Amino acid sequence: MDVVVVGGGPAGRALARACAARGLGTTLVDPNPARPWRATYAAWVDELPADAPIAVATSKARAVTTVEHVLARGYAVLDNERLRRLPDEVRVVAGRVVERTGVTATLADGRVLTGRVVDASGAVGGRAAQTAVGVVVPAERAAPFVGVDEALIMDWRKPPAATTGDPTFLYAIPVSADEVLLEETSLARRPGLPLPELRLRLHARLAAHGIPVPEGEERVRITLDGRARDGAFGAAAGWIHPATGYSVAVALRRAPVVADAIAGGRPVKRSAAERTVRRLRLRGLAALLALRPDQVPEFFNQFFDLSGSLQRDYLGGHDDLRGTARAMLRLFGSAGWPMRARLVFPVHSAKLLETPG
């Protein structure tokens, strides 16, 4: 084999497809390759490559902070079946990698695979996490929360029931022509907000509108500050955005670029710009964690007051240093002095408040 991709999630499979398309002998290692994906993957339409497998898309989005913001930006939910599909040329090996070098991957059962090894096994380490609990309901029942042809990115209005002061928001997106995912989400907390608390809040929102709780639920936990590894791809390379939890769009965009590097015998490593952008984003995560619960909606109100180009700069490219710095400086400049103090001294503020945000 020319390349061994360790990890069978969206990032690993995107890279395996791209490598196979360049004629590279490609092996994908996945502990359980037949296990269905139960997570819902979504992204802004303009961040996805042209061939992204979109299941459903809206032409606009909305966010409710201290006021309502209508965003003229398309939002898409990806088709998991097409996202996980691999060409016949990719060899899929069921197994768990226990040791790897740059050119070998040793499985728990003793098998050794050889080739250019790329780690796409996901984030490791870290303490801050985004957690969520969601249910899928018929679109007509979701009408009190989200309209036709729109995605509700976040609604920070407080749920009818809660046992802690941690801020959470409702996320509501269409997942098919007649179904909507309603998800109670803790954007960032160290450690992640427990799922029973999120479930309580979501069920209270549903009950307030007379919506019965359907069977089954989606459970989410995304590590936001895991260690970034050189030679890795996707979340393993630190591509999870600490302010959103998104990483799939950048993995789909970057897969052909990384496959070209592998085919050309070039190293897969993080650029100086990528490292710096990650440090800036982690600084932003620390600031977000330090905010008082009542300050979080105001923070996002100021964010969505930024121009569309500045919003895209901050939410977009993992190596766009100029855009990231420009957006963060503009957001800092628009904040009031109390919030500026927390943005500048996030660690001190978090300790003083004893509130994870």
Describe the structure.
With 357 residues, the protein is of the alpha+beta class. It folds into three domains: 3-49 and 78-123 and 226-270, FAD/NAD(P)-binding domain; 129-223; 273-353, no CATH class. 32% of the residues lie in helices and 25% in strands. It has ten helices and 17 strands. It has helices at 10-21, 80-84, 195-208, 248-263, 272-290, 295-305, 308-315, 321-334, 337-344, 346-353; strands at residues 3-6, 26-30, 42-44, 54-58, 60-64, 68-71, 75-78, 91-94, 97-100, 104-107, 112-114, 116-119, 129-138, 150-155, 169-174, 179-189, 218-223. Helix 1 links the parallel strand 1 and strand 2. The radius of gyration is 21 Å and the shape is globular.
Helices and strands in order:
Elements lengths: L2 E4 L3 H12 L4 E5 L11 E3 L9 E5 L1 E5 L3 E4 L3 E4 L1 H5 L6 E4 L2 E4 L3 E4 L4 E3 L1 E4 L9 E10 L11 E6 L13 E6 L4 E11 L5 H14 L9 E6 L24 H16 L8 H19 L4 H11 L2 H8 L5 H14 L2 H8 L1 H8 L4
Parallel strand pairs: 1-2, 1-12, 2-8, 5-14
Antiparallel strand pairs: 3-7, 4-7, 5-6, 9-10, 10-11, 13-16, 13-17, 14-15, 15-16
Low-confidence stretches: 347-357
Distance between the termini: 47 Å
As for the CATH topology of the largest domain, it is: FAD/NAD(P)-binding domain
Biggest sheet overview: 7 strands, mixed
Instruction: Assess the beta-strand content as a share of residues.
Output: 15-25%
Q: What's the helical proportion of residues?
A: 25-40%
Task: Kindly report the name of the CATH homologous superfamily of the largest domain.
Answer: FAD/NAD(P)-binding domain
- Rg, nearest Å: 21 Å
